[in-house]
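Just curious. Invent one:
>
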Amino acid sequence: MCGILSVFGPDSSAQFDLSSMLSTIVHRGPDDKGILQGDNWMLGHQRLAIMDVDGGHQPMQTAEEKLYSICNGEIYNFRDLQDSHCPSYPFQTQADSEVLLPLFQTFGNDLIQQLDGMFSFVVSDGQQWLAGRDRMGIKPLYYATAGEHKFFASEVKALVHCAEHIQEVPSSHFYHSQAGLVPYYNLPDVTVFQKDQEAIQVALRQTLSRSVQKRLMSDVPVGVFLSGGLDSSIIAALMKQHVSELHSFSVGLPNSPDLKAARLVADHVGTIHHEYVYSEAEMQAVLADVIYYLESYDPALVRSAIPCYIVSKLASQYVKVVLSGEGADELFAGYSYLADYDDPRALHQESISILEGLHNLNLQRVDRMTMAHSLEGRVPFLDIDFIELCLQIDPHLKLFSTFGIEKWLLRKTFEDLLPHEIVWREKMEFAQGCASSEVLEKHAKAVITEQALVEAKIQGFPVNTQEELFYYGIFHQHFPHPDAAKVMGRWEGTLH
């Protein structure tokens, strides 16, 4: 995991201090810093060393120094790509991201179609450039303009003081210097669904197991976030089949139901378990930092980001990479409001809709909160093969009314790996399980009066509640740029 930053345009190196801009995202990669530049371009990289720890310095370049690249994330199929498409290329490192260079030489813009992973990258020959983002938008990428200059960066905070306009590169898009913004992938439009429950369960088991194995790719220790809920517990159980000494991490307020459930899973699976009990005062103390790193003031996102921030800090003391259970609720209709759906096709369409919105909501939270502590987060449920498999399942098998419980199919598929009370535990949102939701809302209402909210709305502030106004005040201090609030994701009320 890393932070990337690039500038293209006349006399870029003379007009912009790339080193200073990079310093705003040093948390994404404190292990190493690299800058390459020409008269009209600059590439900068903050590295968190995961693959080829000693040799994987970035920016990377071809031996003849005519092609350059920076990358954030992991390309899981890089070895297969090297063997199939680049057998004669003189690789200089064992890092996964170096494969971008020969792939660009062979495929041009279409190189992105070859990649299996979570990534954002920029490849350039100094004249033209290609910037791309993974299919689900697991890794962030923003672009911005200032006069004749174009910027690309991992986080908004690297751009707010130099750019006139800031926009997000959407998930499954690339941006080319001549072609502009181009989509390259869409979730499948399924018309015939799979109905054989037994065959579906076998496929789910095999595909998720492969996804987890793929995400164990690392030259540094890998752990797991373990909330005690179904999703993270499944990931922990599958990881333990391949990692003999697996570290798991859980946090919560005193008497949090998640802490107790996580201990039960850790004992059952056999992880080296770590937990941290935080106080309400600690939540309030870290709130401003959370909003700064999160780059959002959306209440639902901020609430869930607090425990994610704290558990990331805990995990960073033991490992550099963690897997989490993000994505299962979207794929298996786990959110409470989805229990009201009685039309299978409507449920399927809603699933697609919330999957497409994940990149700047829950995935933004996972990325920013882990990166705040120089930790890499990976999300096995959002493997493209697994997503496409799940979208082929008859949505009738995901309806709450079909089985009287959400995510029945997922529970049934993996019930042999976990304690009965975990498999059939009632679904809780992350912030609820950590007992943080009510604390934050109460704190906000103590600070922001109802009259202040009325006045803020009259002035045109983009807020709806006292809690949101409280977070917005902190956000605006960090990100006064008018585009900062426009590029952030917002829950539309359904998941509050």
The chain has a mean pLDDT of 95. The first helix runs from residue 12 to 15. The radius of gyration is 22 Å. The chain has three domains: 2-183, 197-447, 449-479.
